[in-house]
Write a structure and sequence with these properties.
The protein has one domain. The chain has 216 residues and is an all-alpha fold. The two termini are 31 Å apart. The chain is built from 8 helices and no strands. The protein is globular, with a radius of gyration of 19 Å.
Length: 216
């Protein structure tokens, strides 16, 4: 759906920064290719098609701002959303468990989640809903953004600067690995008919409840 190579080639640093912001702080961001995009942008920088330092600065700033927006959304919407007794994701008991969890494991979670595709999209919102300390959140938000944003980009830069013509086989390999990962994950979730029915019913209830309350 999203071609990282075309995005970087067409939109440059601005497109990369906008997508990293959306992936870090907007719930629709789980559809976006964060890691692949950073690797691709770094690869372009390694081939002297993008300036490295402005790229890294833009990525890190976008990642920080995205997580801050996600936190604010979770802080404001969380208490209204987590009121249900049933469902899969938005159960009432989860808000209390989340608060306790982020008091104990918040810092390491904020940093580590940056490196897990899709998980990082929701962590900022969950941290806000769980009322993680704002100062601590900001500090570890910055640390995670620097480690992830600059780290993944520099890996791509090194590959592009070290291996000639890597783009000929880099993208097919990345796409193949992503397809395999998603296929295995989805199969594990839906292989059981009972699990499929429960998952479908619970997610539909959560979806309807979420958008009904967001509109209000």
């Amino acid at each position: 759906m999203f071609d990282a190579h075309s995005i970087v080639q067409t939109g440059g640093i601005l497109a990369v920064a906008v997508i990293i912001f959306a992936e870090s702080g907007l719930l629709i961001g789980f559809l976006l290719p964060g890691d692949t995009l950073l690797l691709t942008a770094g690869l372009f920088a390694g081939q002297h098609k993008l300036p490295l330092i402005p790229l890294i600065v833009s990525v890190v700033v976008a990642a920080i701002l995205g997580y801050q927006v996600g936190y604010i959304f979770g802080e404001r919407a969380g208490p209204r959303l987590f009121k249900r007794e049933g469902g899969i994701l938005l159960r009432k008991e989860y808000i209390h468990l989340t608060e306790a969890y982020f008091k104990k494991y918040g810092p390491i979670t904020i940093v580590a989640a940056r490196f897990v595709a899709h998980v990082r999209t929701f962590v900022s919102v969950i941290a806000g809903a769980g009322r993680m300390d704002k100062k601590a959140y900001l500090v570890f938000n910055v640390i995670g953004a620097v480690l992830w944003g600059s780290g993944i980009t520099l890996v791509g830069f090194w590959l592009g600067n070290t291996i000639p013509h890597i783009d000929r086989y880099f993208f097919p390999v990345i796409v193949s690995l992503l397809v395999l990962l998603y296929a295995v994950t989805i199969w594990g979730l839906v292989k059981s008919p009972t699990r499929r029915a429960t998952l479908r019913k619970g997610l539909k209830e959560d979806y309807d409840y979420f958008f009904r309350h967001v509109k209000n």
